[in-house]
Amino acid sequence: MPEAESPLASLHRAAEAVRQQLRLNAYDVAAVERLAAFIEEQRPTIKPAEQEGVVMALGCFLGQCLVHTYQGEWAAGLDNTTGVGIGGKSFFNPFYRVSQQLAHGLPESVAVFFAQVPMHLQAAQRRKNWI
Q: Residue 130: what pLDDT?
């Protein structure tokens, strides 16, 4: 019986498939900008039955961009959702971000979200834990 693929390997494989499909060289800011444009191009054509698979694939790619650009790591959130943890203080759900742009268009752009990550990281560093 073949061994099951690890969840992390599945995430990486899906992200790499999207990177190749979009013909991108890296998981960086430019790649996320292309992803946002791709989502906008495809939004009108995605059928409800396809949406979950699209969100999963594109979310893996966005997550891998977070990992590479902001030195994050794939992790499980407090609510057991899969996402990317950065610096031990911030957690981002790339699947949610993709689903938001699919549902609402450019006002919920993954590129805008991605550009705002440094502000979220700075805010997380400034928070104090008072006893």
A: 54
Stated as kind and residue range, the H or E segment containing 73 is strand 73-76
37-61 confidence digits (pLDDT tens): 999 999 999 999 999 999 999 999 9
Query: Counting beta carbons within 10 angstroms of the beta carbon of residue 131, is it exposed (0 to 12), middle (13 to 18) or buried (19 or more)?
Result: exposed
Q: How far apart are CA 78 and CA 80, in angstroms?
A: 5
For residues 122 and 41, what is the distance between their CA atoms, to the nearest angstrom? 33
Question: Residues 56, 13: contact at Cβ < 8 Å?
Answer: no
- Tokens representing 78 are 């407090």
CA triple 123-129-131, angle to 5 deg = 165
**DSSP assigned state of 71:** T
Contact by Cβ (8 Å): 84, 62: no
pLDDT tens figures, 75-118 = 998 899 999 999 888 999 999 999 999 999 999 999 999 999 99
